Amino acid sequence: MEVLAPMPGSVTEILVKVGDQVKENDELVVLEAMKMENPIFAPVDGTIKEIKVKEKDTVEAEQVLVIME
């Protein structure tokens, strides 16, 4: 499952590592957009398979941030 950026912004913090077990609604990434910090939450329980961004990356809306399985 791909976790997408809901809006364009800048990645300020990555809160998970590959292999982490996460529960639905756990925070995965913090995205700064329009001078506000927006936490991006896990949509389902799962394992972090891949992290597609780094801190300070600029992302577009609908860009893949994290891949879960």
Explain what you see.
Helices cover 0% and strands 54% of the residues. It has 69 residues and is mostly beta strands. The strands form two sheets. It has a four-stranded antiparallel β-sheet with strand order 1-8-6-3, with no helix packed on it. Strand 4 and strand 5 form a beta hairpin. It is globular. The relative contact order is 0.39. The model has no long low-confidence stretch (mean pLDDT 97).
| Number of helices in the DSSP assignment | 0
Count every beta strand, where a strand is a DSSP E run of 2 or more residues: 8
Radius of gyration: 11 Å
Percent of sequence in beta strands = over 45%
Which structural category fits the helices and strands? Answer: mainly beta
> In what order do the strands lie side by side in the largest sheet?
1-8-6-3
Tell me about the biggest sheet?
A: 4 strands, antiparallel
CA distance, first residue to last residue: 6 Å
Give the uncertain stretches in residue-range form.
none
Q: Give the overall silhouette.
A: globular
Q: Order of SSEs, N→C?
A: EEEEEEEE
Arithmetic mean pLDDT = 97
Helical residues, percent: under 10%
